[in-house]
Amino acid sequence: MRRLDTPLQFLLGNEKAEKVERIEPAFWWCGMKNTQLQLMVYGTNIATYKPIINHPGVTLKSVHPMESPNYLILYLDVKDAAPGKFSIEFVKGKKKLNYSYELKERKGKGEDKVGFNSSDVVYLLMPDRFANGDETNDKVIMKHPYTVNRNDVSARHGGDIAGIVKHLDYLDSLGITTIWTTPILENDMGKGSYHGYAATDYYRIDPRLGNNEDYVQLAELLHRRGMKLIMDMVFNHCGSKHPWLIDLPMRDWFNNPFEYVQTNHNKTSFFDPYAADIDKEEMTDGWFVPTMPDLNQRNHFVADYLIQNSIWWVEYANLDGIRQDTYPYPDGDMMVRWCKEVFEEYPNLNIVGESMITNPTGAGYWQQNSPVNKNGNTELKSVMDFHLQSIASNAFHEETSWNTGLQLIFEHLAYDFCYSDINNVMRLFENHDTDRFLLETPKNLDAYKQAVVLLLTIPGIPQLYYGQELLMTGNTKIDYGYIRPDMPGGWKGDTTSVFDKKGRTAMQQEAFDFMRKLLQWRKGNEVISNGRMKHFMPRNNVYVYERSHNGKSVLVVMNGVSKEVDLELAHYKEVIGHNTSGIDVLTGKVIQLGEILHLLPKEVLVLEL
């Protein structure tokens, strides 16, 4: 542990001119189910002022000066308020400060927002590394110096929201239905903050990526195409250059604000029957890293702020879902409350929580109504399957035997009983924090094709990572930047563009076409999105499973070895039934289902029966 400097403003205040510098959120809406509104007021010595509101339908319920004189928190009830602006007057003796606040009219009902689900395919991208659509925001002046250098994996590269918009045709034509971007809020942290996980302003899009209106427009453009947008949110921590750490609102606004304590990342402590109290405490209250101070969600002002902020973004940007970073790290009771309040406002929205546990039981623990969680209901709809991610590369690249290759996939899926709702489990092979599925450029696409087929045809919500469709490789051994490369062609001056067929190698094009065919076939296919699954233990090193729904059936057959195999089909009579043939989705060929099915080395078939 090391001593942290006590913020000077916390002890002394300051001598700036007294004014209302800002109020968060900047505006709110009438007609919300929860009519309570928290306003966080920033201003020099603002806590020494008395707020007064005289406006029909708006009730000032309570006033809370913070321990720092530069913050004041108000709670309003706006149940009976009409849309429009009203004045908040701050009075101290003869001094008066006025602030005009607005309540907007909602554009629709919360029930109308339908979140991402198993009919979708989620495409994760990192805006700074995807494409640069607006060079004018590459070197915006920020409080803290940073570098823009595409040759430095830790620096900013200049990608932005405009770059995403520019390539929506590419994503749409590929067959993507939902985009999840890594966090896009302001990260005024200097070098290394390109990833977005160290917010310095919870209500502002980082100006190097665009502005708030650009983000709203992105959502609108996606919706016009029938596509969806997921926002990546971070409740566990903010950036160390956030104003809150520079000038603490309260001493317990953060966990361990004056003495650095590192989280132990021991995510098993929540369900470990032998876990020590100190391990549990260090897990939730320790800082993620020295530049990411740990927010104390047990402080109800902090909790209210974060919950309200997430609802603000859903309403403002018309979001289709939320991905919550480091889900087990914040206070558990607060996270349950958050899910309840979000789903009360938007019952059909979806939230997926990141719990990077490479064990199905540990992952299933966090899903709502979990059969393995004896500590309570998390109320979280969706979780991530990191165990599948951890085994996928080996499983598909090695030869299948009794305990290798596709046998690992079969055994993994057998543990799906750990999830209360398998259709709300996000399946992935790679993301921005993991090694790529392909550690090096492949010699052929056998493993890749089998992996893509599995990801897109098993129960759950498939999640792809940008460049996966183009055989991007990389690992995290040296730096995470090596799994977060630029998309060639996303920047002016790039010699090739993978966004265009002409810029792809023959193998990249083959991979792209293969994935696109499956993605487009998957759209609207209820056999895959909602169907029952039945699988067979690998026999003769061949893995077979069926998806079925309303009398329709899809049979997937994978040869797990690099040699030809003759598969006796009598063993699979319960899923083949009276069908004598099937149409292979991948080739369009009619495949005869007689006594023997001859399979080529590492062949994969997707048969509509």
Structure write-up:
The protein is α/β, with parallel strands linked by helices. The protein contains 16 helices and 28 strands. It has an eight-stranded parallel β-barrel with strand order 10-11-14-16-17-18-19-20. Strands 21-22-23-28-25-26 form a six-stranded antiparallel β-sheet. A four-stranded antiparallel β-sheet has the order 2-4-7-6, covered by helices on one side. Residues 5-13 have low confidence and may be disordered.
Total count of strands: 28
Mind summarizing the main beta sheet? 8 strands, parallel, barrel
Helix content: 10-25%
Q: Mean pLDDT, nearest integer?
A: 96
What does the overall shape look like?
Answer: elongated
Q: Helices and strands: which structural class?
A: alpha/beta
What is the first-to-last residue Cα distance? Answer: 62 Å
What Rg, in angstroms, do the CA atoms define? 26 Å
Count up the helices: 16
